[in-house]
């Protein structure tokens, strides 16, 4: 099997069966650096059984890592879904939309003016009756008012003072 390396100077890999079983062998020539003449060759071999075992072990590790990653991903998704569900008080998105629409319908049906502000005086909600009472119905819509300071929209309400002092 070493004819190609010793006579032709080729580098190659072959498969052969020896006393220990099937093996892969790599042959490469060795050259004298000064004369550039082949002075011998080297042969390295390993049993194919060892290669197959290493391959199967690597595949097993890959499968185990994939299963582990999938398990972590599923557990993470489950925990995230439960956390989101808890934040949403157990409601599904369509239920939240329905409740929001019902709430806004009730708020707009109230004849009294309703203006809600947060702790720093930013308007978070205003109904149609409030716009009408404040003579803002034709000038602006609700979306233009929400997010603005109550003192800017409704001057002299002293709402900021009420929020600060209680």
TrEMBL record:
Highest taxon in the source lineage: Bacteria
Pfam family, one: sCache_3_2
GO cellular component, as recorded: plasma membrane
GO biological process: phosphorelay signal transduction system; regulation of DNA-templated transcription
Keywords for this protein: ATP-binding, Cell membrane, Kinase, Membrane, Nucleotide-binding, Phosphoprotein, Transferase, Transmembrane, Transmembrane helix, Two-component regulatory system
Classification via InterPro entries: PAS, PAS-like_dom_sf, PAS_fold, sCache_3, Sensor-like_sf
Residues that span the membrane, as ranges: 58-81
Domain Single cache: start-end pairs: 4-54
Membrane topology value: Multi-pass membrane protein
Chain ranges of the PAS fold domain: 105-158
Annotated GO MF terms: ATP binding; kinase activity
Protein's cellular compartments: Cell membrane
Name used for this protein in its record: PAS domain-containing protein
Organism: Clostridium perfringens
